[in-house]
Amino acid sequence: MFDLTKIPIGIYEKAISNDLSFYEKLVIAKRAGFDFVEISIDENDERIKRLYMNEKELKEFKNIIEEAGIPILSMCLSVHRRYSLGSTDYNIRNKALDIMKRAIIFSNLLGIRTIQIAGYDVYYEKSTEYTKNMFKQNLLQAIEWASKAQVMLAIETMDYELVNSVNKALEYVNYYNSPWFKIYPDIGNLTAWGFNVENEIEAGMGNIVAIHLKDTLPGQYRRVPFGNGVVDFVRCFKKLNEIGFNGPYLIEMWSSDKDLEISYNTIYNARLWIVDKMRKAGFKLE
Asked: For residue 108, which of 51, 58, 118, 149 is within the disulfide window of CB 3.0 to 4.6 Å?
């Protein structure tokens, strides 16, 4: 049973060695004290296939989650870098929409609450007014589907100028004006861009549904160990506490370790590090 007395802290699937089975990843996450896992549907064909499982396969996948005893509450849908919603190629846009539809159905069936949308119109093409308009148009279709399935779509503040701030994300939120489309800020990305993160958090008040946690350096958005970057976690947590945001929080990391125990120790220590910063900011945790 989900514990409503706790602020939920989750871990990104890719923070755990990909040499392990999905079940093993879930078991490690639970053992390390996390409340949920964020599943990855990225450009990798094996992860994309998850959205195309048949009824029997889906049932088996759901049983794995239930047996592990830890929920999948969110999905990082970064596959849209490969199949972009704003692509100039109709076939790519069509594939992107099919993936979006299947991700929503998949989430509805498995109890996933939030799908994180990458704020890219295109990734491997040149961004133009056309690609931006196509992105906007196809997001409208995605929001219509998500509304029917009661699945939240949340746009992330990215390492990409189109949506690199909460204020830019708000332009989309205000345009669609849907309760099923909100913001998923990444305080690491915001810091790496040089934004005043406290101001960004305050601007998003009432529209933030989850927070990505990672350390960064100016212009370096990934793979900076906690404590080696410039993110002021305590100040960010103080502002989030001030606006009454109670979660969920998601630790985003990438693992290249093959050893189970190394994976476990890495995410376990990362959670302890984050919890320490949250406590210093005034959060009351276990």
From this structure: 149
- H-helix or E-strand containing 23? helix 22-31
Q: Cα 178 from chain centroid?
A: 19
Q: What single letter denotes the amino acid at residue 194? A: G
pTM recorded for the entire structure? 0.95
164-208 pLDDT, tens digit per residue, is 999 999 999 999 999 999 999 999 999 999 999 999 999 999 999
Whether 284 and 247 have beta carbons less than 8 Å apart is answered as no
Q: What is the span of the domain harbouring residue 159? A: 9-280
Domain for residue 285, yes or no? no
Helix (H, G, I), strand (E, B) or coil at 248: coil
The answer to whether residue 3 sits within a structural domain is: no
Helix (H, G, I), strand (E, B) or coil at 178: coil
Matching residue, tokens 């992330």:
156
Residue 4 lies in a domain: no
